[in-house]
Amino acid sequence: MEKTINIILSGLGGQGILFMTRALAQAALDKGFNVMGAETHGMAQRGGSVVSHLRLGEVKSSLVRTGTAHFLLSLEENEGYRNLPFLSHGARMYVNTNSRHFPREEAKGLLDKRKIIYRSIPAGIMAQELGAPRSSNLALLGYFSAFDEGPINYKDLKTTIHKISPKRFKDINLKILEAGYKKGKEAKK
User: Fold this and answer.
1) Residues β-bridged to residue 50
2) What confidence score (pLDDT) does residue 44 get?
3) Is 122 helix (H, G, I), strand (E, B) or coil?
4) How far separated are the first and last CA of the chain, in Å rounded?
């Protein structure tokens, strides 16, 4: 594994980007990683663009430079496209979308040229069907963890979500995380 792992998380205000970042950061800290992060853009405005930078390992600054992110997790398809410049050659992109045309044709050429592996899940629909429409972030995290491509695995996230979730949301949060994980395991087959 590389000395530094760079992760970009993106979406819109109110989608839970900060909770998702907190879960990944806490899981990484519990595994002994050094962690630095920063949130940028319109966080205070519900519906505004939110980008979170998370750096694990040997890091000296909190912002991910253009072309150096290993992972992009986006809770909104357009925000995923908007943050493509952060991705390094061979990076991984996980997007919440129910579009049958993901990725869009105009982005597919770039993704293929840079050998970026892209995956999508209808995390918002899954969360809604499970009774927690504001928890698409957890479905996306579970899905991401099923591919075992990053330093944080499903077991790490499950332990962390159990630890950091408010008591009244703990059971539903774990249920949605697991549903995303199962969807990822199915996609791997």
Assistant:
1) 11
2) 52
3) coil
4) 24
Half-sphere exposure for 183 (CA within 13 Å, toward CB)? 23
pLDDT-based confidence at 49, cuts 50/70/90?
confident
Q: Stretch 33-37: mean pLDDT, rounded?
A: 94
Query: 75 with 16: CB under 8 angstroms?
Result: yes
- CATH of the domain spanning 4-188: 3.40.920.10
Q: Can you say how many angstroms the Cα of residue 3 is from the centroid of all Cα atoms in its chain? A: 20
Q: Identify the residue whose tokens are 């410049």.
A: 85
pLDDT band at 189 (very low <50, low <70, confident <90, very high): confident
SS3 assignment, position 92: strand
Average pLDDT over residues 36-43: 75
Tokens, residue 27: 């899981």
- The amino acid at residue 8 is I
Q: What is the pLDDT of residue 169?
A: 94
Indicate the domain borders of the chain.
4-188
Find the helix or strand (DSSP H, E) in which 147 lies: none
